[in-house]
C-alpha cells in the first residue's frame, strides 16, 4: 500500500525529515501521532503527492506520488484540517467532484449524509465547521478510495458527533482499504486507530499494533515511584504514578493508554526499539 524509503524533506534550508522510512499495508486504521511541528501534515502531503521529497523513494498504491498519476489520485481521498467549501448546493458539489472518483457510491453518500443529520437543502458553504467536516467525510467515505487520509478529523465536532465519527469510520473499513488519521485528540481515537505511528525528530520512531505492544509491555498505576530495571517510563499523576514496564511471561496483558504510550515512546525511544514487533 505505502512504502517510503530513506525520505529526506526540507523547507528551504530547514531539514524536517532525514532518512525517514515507513511501511503501511492495507486494511487498517492507522493513527499518526506527533508533537506540534513534528511534520505530520507534511508527511501526509508527501504520501498524497501534494509535496515532493528531496531524496529517497516512495510507492503509494503502486505509484510514485511525485508523478501524480491520475490513477493514483482517483484512489486517494485527503481531508485536510483546514479547507474551504464554496457556496453551492450538495447536488452541484457532487456534479463537479464525483467525476474525479470513478468508484463513488451515491447511495452510500446519501446514507452517510443521513447518519450525520446534514440538511440537504442548505448550501454547504453555510454549514458550520463541524458540519462541513461531516459533509467531506461523507463524500470521502462514499468515494470508495483505497486510501483515506484524515488530518485532525475530530476538530470542531461535538461529543455525539465524535462518537458517530468513530462508528462510521470503523464500519467503512475493509481489507483493501486503509485509513491514516493524524490527530492530537488521542482520547477521541481510542478503540479506533490501530496500529500507531509516532513521528518525532524527523523520523518514524514507532510503528506497531496495540496487540503487539501489549505482548511486550504493561501499564499500571502505582502508589510510589518505581525504581526497578524493568521500568521503561513513569509519570506522576494524581494519586500515584503511571508506569510502563517490560511485561514478564507471568503478567497478564493490560490496557494500553495511548497518551501514556505516546509520552513513553517520545521520552524513551531507544527503550521501545526492543519491544516493537
Q: Termini distance?
A: 19 Å
Mind telling me which CATH architecture of the largest domain this is?
3-Layer(aba) Sandwich
Total count of domains:
2
Radius of gyration: 20 Å
Measured by DSSP, the beta-strand proportion falls in 25-35%
Sheet having the most strands = 6 strands, mixed
- Low-confidence segments: none
Helix content: 25-40%
Give me the CATH superfamily of the largest domain.
P-loop containing nucleotide triphosphate hydrolases
Major β-sheet strand ordering: 5-6-7-3-8-9
For the record, the CATH class of the largest domain is Alpha Beta
Oligomer: single chain
Number of helices: 10
- Coarse shape: globular
Order of helices and strands: EEEHEHEHHHEHEHEEHEEEHH
The helix/strand class is alpha/beta
CATH structural fold name of the largest domain: Rossmann fold
Q: Got a strand count? A: 12
Mean pLDDT: 94
How does this structure look, described?
With 277 residues, the protein is an alpha/beta fold. It folds into two domains: 2-208, P-loop containing nucleotide triphosphate hydrolases (Rossmann fold); 210-272, no CATH class. It is 30% helix and 28% strand. The chain has ten helices and twelve strands. It has helices at 40-47, 70-73, 90-97, 106-115, 129-142, 159-172, 186-189, 210-216, 258-267, 269-272, and strands spanning 2-11, 14-24, 29-33, 55-60, 76-79, 147-151, 178-182, 196-200, 203-208, 217-222, 231-237, 240-246. The strands form three sheets. It has a six-stranded mixed β-sheet with strand order 5-6-7-3-8-9, with helices on both faces.
Amino acid at each position: 500500500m505505502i512504502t517510503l524509503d530513506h525520505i529526506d524533506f526540507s523547507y528551504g534550508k530547514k531539514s524536517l525529515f532525514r532518512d525517514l522510512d515507513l511501511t503501511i499495508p492495507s486494511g487498517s486504521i492507522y493513527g499518526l501521532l506527533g508533537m506540534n511541528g513534528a511534520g505530520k501534515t507534511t508527511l501526509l502531503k508527501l504520501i498524497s503527492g501534494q509535496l515532493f521529497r528531496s531524496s529517497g523513494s516512495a510507492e503509494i498504491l503502486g505509484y510514485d506520488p511525485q508523478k501524480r498519476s491520475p490513477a493514483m489520485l482517483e484512489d486517494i481521498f485527503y481531508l485536510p484540517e483546514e479547507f474551504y467549501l464554496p457556496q453551492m448546493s450538495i447536488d452541484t458539489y457532487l456534479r463537479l467532484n464525483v467525476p474525479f472518483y470513478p468508484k463513488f457510491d451515491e447511495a452510500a453518500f446519501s446514507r452517510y449524509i443521513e447518519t450525520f443529520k446534514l440538511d440537504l437543502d442548505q448550501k454547504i458553504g453555510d454549514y458550520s465547521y463541524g458540519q462541513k467536516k461531516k459533509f467531506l467525510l461523507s463524500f470521502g467515505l462514499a468515494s470508495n478510495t483505497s486510501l483515506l487520509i484524515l488530518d485532525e478529523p475530530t476538530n470542531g465536532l461535538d461529543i455525539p458527533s465524535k462518537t458517530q465519527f468513530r462508528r462510521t469510520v470503523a464500519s467503512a473499513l475493509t481489507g483493501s482499504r486503509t485509513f491514516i488519521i493524524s490527530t492530537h485528540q488521542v482520547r477521541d481515537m481510542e478503540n479506533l486507530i490501530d496500529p500507531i505511528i509516532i513521528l518525532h525528530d524527523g523520523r518514524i520512531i514507532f510503528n506497531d499494533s496495540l496487540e503487539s505492544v501489549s505482548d511486550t509491555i504493561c501499564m499500571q498505576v502505582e502508589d510510589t515511584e518505581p525504581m526497578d530495571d524493568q521500568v521503561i517510563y513513569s509519570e506522576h499523576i494524581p494519586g500515584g504514578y503511571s508506569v510502563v514496564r517490560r511485561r514478564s511471561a507471568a503478567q497478564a496483558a493490560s490496557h494500553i493508554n495511548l497518551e501514556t504510550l505516546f509520552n513513553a515512546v517520545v521520552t524513551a525511544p531507544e527503550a521501545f526499539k526492543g519491544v516493537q514487533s
